[in-house]
Every structure is written in structure tokens, then in C-alpha cells.
Write a structure and sequence with these properties.
This protein is an alpha+beta fold and 455 residues long. Among the domains are: 118 residues, no CATH class; 41 residues, no CATH class. It contains 13 helices and 20 strands. The strands form seven sheets. A five-stranded mixed β-sheet has the order 2-1-3-13-14, with helices on one face. The protein has a five-stranded antiparallel β-sheet with strand order 5-4-18-17-16. Strands 6-7 form a two-stranded antiparallel ribbon. A hairpin with a 5-residue loop joins strand 9 and strand 10. Bound molecules: zinc ion. The site of zinc ion has 7 residues, from loops. Zinc ion (ZN) binds next to loops.
Length: 455
């Protein structure tokens, strides 16, 4: 009995040593990466595309797909590069990449004013599939490839619709024309010990007058979202974003608990989050406004098959209702006004498509965004280069004009919404005597008072 156990132990030891030596001795087998139509986009000897001289949209996409494939096969474990490559050895990775879209995207970016500066772009199909992405050819301090479609940057004002306006609307706190006064939220002490007003608006001034939510979003005021988030609750917003989107807000979550919500109100309301967000993440989040409030995390990988043809992974969707259908519809309409004549994203306007989106720019012009949708696509454009002007809305438009689109396509209809004429000055239902009247979108069940200022 005793001898049997020892011999069994020895056999097991020999087996482990043998397989260990075989594993470490064998070289990795080639990995194939295929696009959505089954054409090979890359054949790699060591599951790494970053060293090669590859066309930028293919390099960015394959890099993102390999990272995602490793995550699926390692079940989220953070493996060293060599271990990760072994997991993919001999595999075929079928992706959602649409090479026509990727080529259109590349043509648009390389003929735009951001062709020569750092930039990252992502395009999804609004149904949870990353269909193309792009990164200018960048390297980090160690000379490693930096994929700017997956690299996180501060999202700035592109975060406002996600973290402030939509959650507040969903909770019933806010509607299209809720009026807030454009004034400082508080005084803060600068490095020189001087007190100053906070937050600053982009134009450096305050009107000190009531302004509607729709207008505040359209011209990207900073004062209004800070007040709305204060009323809604920073913790509530952070919790909603992490629960539903898995948005990386760990820093803000902890800081709000240890130092108070006001410490991070600017991070969340104005998009100066510690971890930042990538173009792929933001394109994915914005698709909720085009898809009835339902979120599907953008996926590159459709299927992973090993060398014997066994399926190791297959995509299944995992929809999450982030906002109500009504809120998503109204937010979409509101975001369409951003690309209108006096909106900050007016250069994203396309004659034959409903563009809904939002700009974002850092205080020191260290990054510029436009994230938006048309009925078929969601697209995030980020560029650095310390330019004063935000070129992203125009690049978004150029990209959308390159992509195959149905000009008659519209966003899904939502019942229980109605158009109302409201007074731009009071935010209330327009009376016959209001001089500045606009059209807004409201849930039918939302009751509103008549403007009393102009009667
Ligand atoms: Zn009025």
C-alpha cells in the first residue's frame, strides 16, 4: 500500500517534470486573426502585432483583440506577456472588425488636421461590437507601442451626459428645460492662496441668469452640471456608473467616502476622472443613447478556436439597461442639438444623418474629444497635440461621411415622449407672451407649469 502510494507519487512527479519541460521547450504556434467576413487580417508568430510595421487601423484593432482574447482565456487574470502569448498559441481569433469601415476611418483621419498628431479613434455598431479603431503610431518611454484607442485619457465634458444629465433625468430630478442659474458653485483657494470662483466656464464668465439643462449641455457650461450633480449626489452617480458600465471610478469612489463628495464633484461632473476613459470605452457608453438605454460592452472577439478546431470562447451579448428608454431618447435629442448651429460640436453636423454627441476639452488643451452617434454607429475621437482648437467634431464628421450609411436610418422610436414649446428664460411651458420659445422633449407623464414671468 505504502509502496504503491510512493510509486504513484513518483509517476506524477515525472509527468509534471516532463510536461513542464515540454511546455517551456516548445515555441508558440502562429495565431490567426480574422475580420468579420472571415478574411485573415494578421498571422502572427508570437501573438504580438506591436513590433511590426502594420497599417495603423489593423495594428490598433489586432492589438485590442489580442488583449481581449487573453482576458477571456485567462478569465481576467493579469498574466505576464509570455504566459498570455502561450494561451493564444495556435489559435484562430474571429473578430468583429469591418475592414471597409477601418479603411474609411483611416482615410478620413489621414486626410484630416489630426493626421500628424497623437490620436485615437473607435467605432462601434451600437450593438456591442467594436468594428474599427485607429491609433497614430506612438510609443511609451520604453519604446513599446501605445495604442491610443485603448489608452485612457481624461474624458472632460464628454462625461457630463453619462454621469450627470442622464442619471438626473432618469431619477426625475431633471427635464429638458429645468432651469439652473449660471453662477459659481463655490470659492476655491489657488496655489497662491487667493480665493477664486469655481468652476470656470470655457468663456471665463458667468451670465448669473437661469439657463435650461438643454442649453447648458449644448454650449457645455461647467456651472450647471456641477449644481445638478450636487443635487443628484456624487456617490449616487459613481455607484450607477460602476454598477452599470463598470466605469473605472475607484479613486472617486474612495475619495468621496474619505474626504466628502465635494472633493471629487469636479472629477465626475466635469470629466477630470483619475483613471480616465479610452475611445473604445466612450464609444461603447455613448451607444446607449442610440440603443434605448441598453449597454453592451464593446467587444472585438467573436470566437476563439484552438488548433484542433475546438471552441474556447464564443461571444454572447450581456445587455445592461443603464438608463430608461425615455431618458435615452430624450438625451439623444439633446445631444443632437450639440451638433446644431450654436452647439460646441457644430462641425460634426452631417446633412443626411442625425448626429448626437458631445465635445470635451481639457483646461490646458492637453486633449480634445468628440464622442457621438449616428443611427448605425457610435464613434469616439480623441486627439492630443496641445492644439487650441478641438478638431475632433470635424474628424468625426469626415469619418461618418466615409462609412456606409443608410441616409433614411433613424434612432429607435420611444413611446411616451412628447414635444413641448417651452420658455427659454424660465424653462417653463411657453405662454403666448414668452418671446424666446424653443421645442423640447419630455416624458408625457412629466407635468409642467406655465411660464409666469411672461403673462
Ligand atoms: Zn416665459
Amino acid at each position: 500500500m505504502h509502496i504503491k502510494r510512493v510509486s504513484a507519487f513518483l509517476i506524477l512527479m515525472c509527468f509534471m517534470l516532463l510536461t513542464g519541460s515540454v511546455m517551456s521547450g516548445c515555441s508558440n504556434k502562429a495565431v490567426s486573426v480574422l475580420d468579420i467576413s472571415g478574411d485573415t487580417i494578421a498571422q502572427l508568430n508570437d501573438a504580438d502585432i506591436t513590433k511590426g510595421d502594420v497599417e495603423p487601423a489593423r495594428k490598433a484593432y489586432v492589438d485590442a483583440a489580442l488583449t481581449q482574447a487573453v482576458q477571456f482565456l485567462s478569465q481576467g487574470k493579469d498574466l505576464p506577456d509570455e504566459e498570455a502569448k502561450k494561451l493564444l498559441s495556435g489559435c484562430q481569433i474571429d473578430t468583429f472588425m469591418d475592414t471597409k469601415v477601418a479603411d474609411g476611418l483611416t482615410h478620413a483621419v489621414q486626410n484630416s488636421e489630426i493626421a500628424e498628431i497623437p490620436c485615437g479613434v473607435a467605432v462601434t455598431d451600437n450593438r456591442g461590437h467594436l468594428i474599427a479603431c485607429y491609433s497614430s503610431d506612438e510609443t511609451d518611454e520604453d519604446g513599446n507601442y501605445l495604442n491610443l484607442s485603448t489608452e485612457r485619457q481624461a474624458p472632460y465634458s464628454t462625461l457630463k451626459p453619462l454621469c450627470v444629465y442622464a442619471p438626473a433625468m432618469d431619477s426625475g430630478l431633471l427635464h429638458w428645460s429645468s432651469a439652473y442659474t449660471d453662477k459659481p458653485y463655490k470659492q476655491i483657494e489657488g496655489a497662491d492662496g487667493e480665493m477664486s470662483d469655481w468652476p470656470k466656464n470655457a468663456n471665463g464668465s458667468y451670465s448669473e441668469k437661469p439657463v435650461t439643462a438643454a442649453r447648458a449641455l449644448r454650449v457645455s457650461l461647467n456651472t450647471v452640471p456641477v449644481q445638478i450633480l450636487h443635487d443628484y449626489g456624487v456617490n449616487n452617480a459613481v455607484k450607477l456608473m460602476t454598477d452599470r458600465f463598470h466605469m473605472p471610478l475607484d479613486y472617486e469612489y474612495t475619495k468621496a467616502i474619505t474626504s466628502g463628495e465635494d472633493e471629487v464633484i469636479g472629477n465626475v461632473a466635469l470629466g477630470y476622472t483619475y483613471a480616465g476613459l479610452s475611445p473604445i470605452e466612450l464609444a461603447g457608453y455613448y451607444s446607449v443613447f442610440a440603443a434605448k438605454g441598453v449597454y453592451l460592452a464593446p467587444s472585438c472577439v467573436r470566437k476563439i478556436t484552438d488548433e484542433k478546431g475546438a471552441t474556447l470562447y464564443e461571444y454572447t451579448d450581456d445587455p445592461v439597461q443603464v438608463y430608461s428608454e425615455e431618458t435615452a431618447y430624450i438625451m439623444n435629442k439633446m445631444l443632437q442639438t450639440v451638433a446644431d448651429t450654436d452647439g460646441t460640436g457644430r462641425q460634426a453636423y452631417i446633412e443626411d444623418a442625425y448626429v448626437a454627441g458631445k465635445t470635451g476639452t481639457g483646461d490646458s488643451n492637453d486633449g480634445h474629444w468628440f464622442v457621438g452617434t449616428v443611427p448605425q454607429y457610435s464613434c469616439a475621437v480623441w486627439h492630443g497635440g496641445h492644439t487650441e482648437r478641438n478638431a475632433s467634431p470635424a474628424v468625426f464628421r469626415d469619418i461618418m461621411e466615409e462609412l456606409p450609411r443608410d441616409p433614411n436610418a433613424d434612432y429607435p422610436w420611444c413611446d411616451g415622449i412628447e414635444e413641448r414649446a417651452y420658455c427659454e428664460e424660465s424653462g417653463k411651458l411657453a405662454s403666448g407672451r414668452c418671446s424666446k420659445v424653443n421645442i423640447g422633449y419630455y416624458p408625457t407623464k412629466e407635468s409642467m407649469d406655465l411660464c409666469r414671468e411672461h403673462q
